[in-house]
Amino acid sequence: MRVATLRDIRRMLGDVHIVIEVTDARAPDVTRHGRLEELVSDAGRRLLVVVNKSDLVPEEVLWGWVNAFRAEGLSVLTTSATKRLGTLRLRRELRRIATERPSRILVVGFPKVGKSSIINVLKGRRSASVSAVPGSSGYTRHFQLFRVEGGLYLVDSPGILPPEGAPLEMVLRGAKPEALENPVEAAAALLGDVMRRLPGEVSRVYGVEEGDPVEVLTEIARRRNLTFSSTGEPNLTEAARQVIRDYHLQRLRYYRQPPDSPD
Ligand SMILES: Nc1nc2c(ncn2[C@@H]2O[C@H](COP(=O)(O)OP(=O)(O)OP(=O)(O)O)[C@@H](O)[C@H]2O)c(=O)[nH]1
Ligand SMILES: [Mg+2]
């Protein structure tokens, strides 16, 4: 995973006109990046927040998030890159706000929010790849431009933000389970939150009774025969990794309620 530091992003901002911050509809609050938004604003660049994976959450939840973000003065659109929902609107919006031509657009976000999927939809088949930006400095050596349409270019090296934070935040921000210091703690936090927000989901996916998260994790380990061969004890770390992967692979449903909604 090539992770860009905020310093890299700041440098890239010098060469782009518009920034698309891609967030995951299941956790828009956790997958947006306040510091990044500040940098974009400080650089005087236009920010467009895209709430992607809209197909994974109920419509009222999606609109709750959109309204909350708009109330903060943010420009927001929703997409499902895989189901091609909202992508035409996104293209039209880019065309509308790209007042300067040529305009270069940077796509940033945490790992696995769907940056590449969105770029691929926008690029389309007709798009041509264009070599490095002439006459600009620094980061440009490493990026290629893709033409969305006349005068509208996407920077092909998407800014992947480092997934940092509390254990649950790291999972929602796409940190790989192997990269987590304490996967058991992270998976327990995730399971606890899924059970609280979507009662019945954990039992549907794992066939276990819902209750204390660590006990649930232990039961998952037992049921999947994840035990240490030496002692026969349940291997909680491996069970935790599987649960985290299940969220990333969209097998375990989860979404967060927008503010001001009954939780
Ligand atoms: N359900 C759903 N899945 C999506 C959507 N967009 C992307 N995905 C899936 O999410 C996963 C990550 O998508 P990518 O486009 O690779 O995400 P990315 O942000 O480029 O990931 P990195 O480059 O690894 O940071 C893939 O399995 C996609 O199929 C969406 O709108 N809905
Ligand atoms: Mg990508």
What fraction strand?
A: 5-15%
N-to-C CA distance = 35 Å
The CATH topology of the largest domain: Rossmann fold
Mean pLDDT: 91
Helix content: 25-40%
Helices and strands, in order, run as HEHHEHEHEHEEEEHHHHH
Secondary-structure-derived class: alpha/beta
| Number of discrete helical segments | 11
Radius of gyration: 20 Å
CATH class of the largest domain: Alpha Beta
Number of strands: 8
Contiguous uncertain segments of 5+ residues: 132-141
Key words describing this protein structure:
single chain; 263 residues; alpha/beta; Rossmann fold; Conserved Hypothetical Protein Ylqf, Chain: A, domain 2; 2 domains; 40% helix; 14% strand; elongated; binds guanosine-5'-triphosphate; binds magnesium ion
Structure write-up:
By secondary structure, the protein is α/β, with parallel strands linked by helices. The chain folds into two domains: 6-160, 3-Layer(aba) Sandwich (Rossmann fold); 167-248, Conserved Hypothetical Protein Ylqf, Chain: A, domain 2 (Orthogonal Bundle), CATH 1.10.1580. It is 40% helix and 14% strand. The chain has eleven helices and eight strands. Strands 1, 2, 3, 4, 5, 6, 7 and 8 form an eight-stranded mixed β-sheet that branches. The longest helix is centred in the last third of the chain and has 15 residues, at 183-197. Mean pLDDT is 91; it is low at 132-141. The structure holds guanosine-5'-triphosphate and magnesium ion (MG). Magnesium ion (MG) binds at residues 115-116, 158.
